[in-house]
Amino acid sequence: MNKYSGLYCEKAIGDQNLLMVENARETEKWNGQFKPPHGMISYLGISILFPDNHPFGTICIQDTKTNRFSSAHVDLMENLRDIIQAHLELIYINTELGEKNKTISQFIEEIKILRGIVPICSNCKKNP
Fold first, then answer.
1. 21: CB partners within 8 A, 6+ apart
2. Domain count, the chain
3. Which of 30, 44, 109, 117 could form a disulfide with 69 if both were Cys (CB 3.0 to 4.6 A apart)?
4. Can you give the pLDDT at residue 122?
5. pLDDT per residue over 10-52, tens digit each?
6. Burial of 71 (0-12, 13-18, 19+ CB in 10 A)
7. Residue 1 — pLDDT band, cuts 50, 70, 90?
């Protein structure tokens, strides 16, 4: 039993790699496995990953006719993937920094509260 339901993007995500199908009807692996949505028989897609290497999704080109995608198509898709993954990493880093900033802000507030509670010098018993 195939672990994929037959969707191009599902295969690209599962393999975490580039998937190129020039014509599903002419490819034993794809012919008869599923009915391409809207007659999209050719597909070039690449998986997009979160910074922790879990799948985010895909970016793809689909066509209703045979398409022998060129190396320029592949390069474009890889560049787009790299840009999207870089943005996902920035979002991840900003989220982490935001959490750390929140923690630091909480510590500062606790220090302010403690200063208000203990305003007397423990040595001389006078207000500083």
1. 8, 27, 30, 41, 42, 43, 44
2. 1
3. 44
4. 63
5. 888 888 889 999 998 888 778 776 677 788 899 999 999 999 9
6. exposed
7. very low
**What CATH number is given to the structural domain containing 65?**
3.30.450.40
Q: With respect to residue 127, please indicate whether it lies within any of the assigned structural domains.
A: no
Query: Please, is 7 exposed, middle or buried when counting C-beta atoms within 10 Å of its C-beta (0-12, 13-18, 19+)?
Result: middle
CA–CA dist 74, 89 (Å, integer): 22
The answer to the question of residue 122 being in a domain is no
What distances in angstroms separate CA 3 from CA 14, 20, 61, one per listed residue?
Answer: 9, 19, 23
As given in the structure block, the two tokens for residue 53 are: 């290497």
Evaluate if residue 69 carries a pLDDT over 80. yes
Report if residue 108 sits inside a domain.
yes
pLDDT of residue 7: 82
Domain assignment of residue 74, given as a range: 8-117
pTM of the model: 0.68
Residue 69 identity (one-letter amino acid)? F
Query: Hey, what amino acid is at 12?
Result: A
Task: Say how many Å lie between the first and final Cα of the chain, rounded.
Answer: 77
